[in-house]
Amino acid sequence: MAEFDRAAEDVGNIVSLEHVNTQIPDQQLATIFYVMGLGLTRDPYQVVGVTNMWINAGRCQFHLPTGKPQVVNGHTAVVMPGRAALLQRLASVAKLLEGTKFAFREANDYVEAICPWGNHIRCFEPAPRFGRMMLGMPYVEINVERGAADGIARFYREVFAVPASVADEPEGRAARARIGTDQALVFRESDGPFPEFDGHHVAVYLADFSGPYRKLVQRKLVTREVNQHEYRVIDIPDLDTGRVLARLEHEVRSMTHPSYARALVNRNTATYSPGNESVSWAMPSQTRPL
Ligand SMILES: [Fe+2]
Q: What share of the chain is helix, strand, coil (3-state, %, to 5)?
């Protein structure tokens, strides 16, 4: 029989989770939180004006257009090294963010920071369960109603063709749709509250772009035809009954989209010295020297 478990290396049809987009009403407060507090880096190449800002986290981004605040009902996970330094940075911006929803707390294996408008960002140190990720967004977690996880996992398996499973975990039952090698969308069953969906979105890239599209069109689930490389989907229904189990706008992009896997600048917050201005999103590989 085969010597290697080839299936253990398979990835699904969603190859990358690239950005989380939430409108925010004040660019300066967002800079204080995301750049000074979290220590992330503003994209210096694109969207550099005063009405929107892209914030790099490894190969991922937060997109923050000016507008009525939007809040992910759940949390966005970020992997970053240096928990003590992160706590210092967050403490240092507390005064500047007084009077907003900003807060932070320490948990066993993460620090949770809340943005001035209530978005929860869970910051983990790099760990084997995040693969080689040193800086990045390993998952976005959405709270859903009790009983919804199985139907959501089925939707991701059958429509988007990704490995998706359901597990009972200490924080509750959850559906996990795997993305690429080390990312996921997580849907966690909880008792709520479940505010009405406010229009925030996540951007994902698909290898088979048209296969899911055909299924989504058939079910009238495509909400916007953006361009040749992108469409949008919001409702995640039970495939038998059509009942909506979760709402999350997916900005669905093809791998031929001009922005796919573009290199992002991430500054080294630990120190400054010429040649060491930036940090890598990944741990060094374990290969032998050439
Ligand atoms: Fe977007």
A: 15, 35, 45
Specify the pLDDT at position 285.
75
CA 257 to ligand 1 center in whole angstroms: 13
CATH assignment of the domain containing 140: 3.10.180.10
What separation in Å is there between the alpha carbon of 235 and the centre of ligand 1?
17
Q: Distance, CA 1 to ligand 1 centroid (Å)?
A: 46
pLDDT in tens, 230-261: 999 999 999 999 999 999 999 999 999 999 99
Calculate how far, in angstroms, residue 246's C-alpha sits from the geometric centre of ligand 1.
Answer: 19
Query: Which DSSP string do the residues of 67-94 spell out, in sequence order?
Result: SS----SEEEEEE-S-HHHHHHHHHHHT
Q: How far is the CA of 94 from the centre of ligand 1 (A)?
A: 29
Residue 43 resides in a domain: yes
162 assigned to some structural domain: yes
Distance 4 CA to ligand 1 centre (A): 39
* Enclosing domain of residue 167: 11-254
286: left (phi over 0), alpha (psi -120 to 50) or beta: alpha
| pLDDT of amino acid 287 | 66
36 secondary structure, DSSP code = I
Total-model pTM:
0.96
